[in-house]
Amino acid sequence: MTWSRRFRISEHFRGSLWIVPLMGAVLGAIVGLVLTEVDQHLNLPGYFQYSSSTASTVLSAIVGAAAALTGFVVTVTTLIVQMVNGTFSPRYMRLWYRDPVLKATLALLAGTLMLAFSMLRRIEPDFVPNLGVSVAGILMVADLILFLFFFSRCMSRLRPVTVAALVAKAGRAAFEEARRAMERSAVAIGPSVPETQPTRVVRASSPGVIQAIHLEGLVRWARQHDAQLVLAQAVGDFVTTGATLVTVYGGSTGGAERELTGMIALGDERTIQQDPAFAIRIMVDIALMALSPAVNAPTTATQVLGHLGETLRMIGTADLRRRADSSRGEDRPAVIIRAYAWEDYLTLGVTEIRQYGVTGIQVMRALHAMLEELRGEVRPEHGAAVEEELARLDSTLTTQWGDTVDLDRAAVADGQGIGGAGLAQKVSRSPAQDGPEPGRFVSPGGSPG
Q1: pLDDT tens per residue, range 433-447
Q2: Distance between CA 166 and CA 151 in Å, rounded?
Q3: What pTM does this model have?
Q4: Considering Cα of 226, then 229, then 235, then 239, what sign does the dihedral take?
């Protein structure tokens, strides 16, 4: 089985809502059979013994309660799906489907239902599975506790900022894992290709989005065949049938087609696992949804900018330059991949929020504060990109607010949007004595903006 097939199976398992509950139901039935056998050879104390009628009533109630709670969990999940699609971003659903608490709740409820049902059918006038009835009752209590935790968790995750924080955490984890994978392998980022003619061009046999790439496998293959591989597409790109996936330079290429395509996983949609840009895309979508006329919640967009800025800061402070593997005597990378540059991440995270949030003063102030903070923290080679975004922000503010009395307020950097340190600094500052603050406008009338 190829690596890409194993990856797709893993993704299907992690995103499925029925596999884990089914396993719970099967386990509950098996435990029921085991407990019945144990009960036949076990003499429990009197307070753990039940009459046939009492046991039947208790188990019937447990079966009904487990079925009702399962239906309620499914209802809550459906409502969250509808709310996420209309308020946050449909792309967040890939994370929601993987929630371990949701799967554990459904699995425990299904297991309790099957256990209670299997115990119920074994009750006879001369035999009562006392241990099984007690275990079913304990599981029902655990179901109620887990259900309350699940419900509280769902209510908490209905807030857009909480969703943005979860997505940002997943994106940072994906970037860190990708960075470590590159450090472990002889991989370089860049568009440069060898000057020689390629030995073979490997093309996609089916359309799809590149969800993940087995970098270590590609490096191992390149070393075994004394070749250099150049990937034409980046993780997150959609490739059509026949599109170039890998270009091979040098070495022997027998069996290259199947082996190399087996290390590039294609799917129907993007996933965050190796694609931190997708996490930024989701956060931007949440901010844009909040800025839409139907929602009109600029404060939400301002809060999302905090998590977005932290993700951009982490990426902007990482050193992704390749270091030669001196232990192998290598002076060239085994694999050259396409990946987002810092400028791409920054453009993705800032452009649309600036475009659609230009009418919100607090959004502009928070965006200004985020860019100012990034300018002071990212690597020196990324400073020009931040300066360009600040210049674009200045131009946007001049166009939108230049003829209004609020230009001075819209142009202040304030991490809280309105009411933070930026406003306090503006009020306490004397423009006549100190001159305009760095990065602020001077309106046509001469007042600082």
Answers
A1: 344 444 433 333 343
A2: 17
A3: 0.82
A4: negative
